[in-house]
Amino acid sequence: MNIKKKLLFGAATLSMSLLAGCGNSNEIVMWTPLTGEDGQIMDQMIEEYNDTDPEFPVSHVVTPDLYTQIYTVMNTGEGTPDLAIIHADRVEGFVRFNMLKPFDDLMGNHPNLVEDNYIEQAWTAGEVDGSQYTIPLDVHSNVLYYNEDLLAEYGVEHFLDDDVLTFDEIMSLEGELDEGHYAINTSLMSWVLLAQAVNLGGDISDDEGNPTIDTPEMREAVQALVEVEEAGLMTPQGEDGYAMFQGQTVLFSSDGTWSSLAFDMVEDLNYGVTNIYSFDSDTWHNRGSSHLFGMLTNEDRTEEKEEGVAEFLDWVYENSVTWAEAGQIPASREVYESPDFENYQQSFFTKSQEQIDSLLIFDYEYYGYVEAAINLVIMDMVYGNISIEDGLAAAQQEVEDLVAQGHGADIDVDLDELDLEE
């Protein structure tokens, strides 16, 4: 069994838009990867903050290929932004390469910026060796959308009485659905799989930092998905299950919290949200990540500007309900406990401590490799094109090889071709 892989190295040429990273001494330059509607909503938030006439206004620079660009400017020492929004799994690697400055000193003067004021998983993702290197903006999670009309049509509304759909309940629909109707689709299937492995007691790495993909828990999780597919309850391979849910032929869709923006635009689609399905109603997780504010290491940045960064993050803590419009779960307790946030579908995930605890954030430094490797094989495993054993073994070997080569998240892994040989 071999996986053909290609590692793409080299610093990218800075685009003209990224030259804005140079900024000036009187503004806080913030780079983000928010290239869609979320970027427009962030622009709105920045405009609201700048309207308060801060000493250091914020300049938002949407930065495609964010991580490559960050490594580029950190290597050259030129054009480094003051602040960046990064993902939870990037923190450990950034700290290892001395790319982030901790917030510890600033937190002492800003009582909002403390652990108790944020979703715990988002806060701890930024903690390394006792120092806090990031301040959370949000959690964005896998979520199970359901078609209210189809559940009523098939008389299965009771499946969600406990807020958890189980594999047994899914399998009970075998032979019960009209032709062309399906129980589940395959949206964000790798996220679903990772949550199932954790539900069974597994993880994606061990205490020594080694990847753990080819495990009994992962095999059992894939097997459960295979059985759903073999029962004819999963959308067919090659079909767009996301669009099929919008077309009202799928009962449950495992998308992201942000997908509500698209679903809201579909006429006559009556939908709700609940937890990602699980093996039983006692143990469930919703795999997600977190957007985190990080202060990139920059010797030229003054203490006064860093104080300005903290003041901006103070403002975000109190005013980020606008961010919920992007389909995100604001990490600020001030916001997610507010009546205003209850108007958003994703408030389901903060309605109780049990729900908050279900939010699963991986901060493993090599998480990107894990997800890429799983994405390469999961559909072929689920639809029977390759065996579960071969698929997981291939994914495990791929990640082990990349980790052994000592590469962090600064390279782009193109896993574009799989050759399986008996």
From TrEMBL:
SUPFAM superfamilies: Periplasmic binding protein-like II (SSF53850). Keywords: Signal, Sugar transport, Transport. Pfam families: SBP_bac_8. Residues 1-20 form the signal peptide. Coiled coil: none annotated. This is Multiple sugar transport system substrate-binding protein.
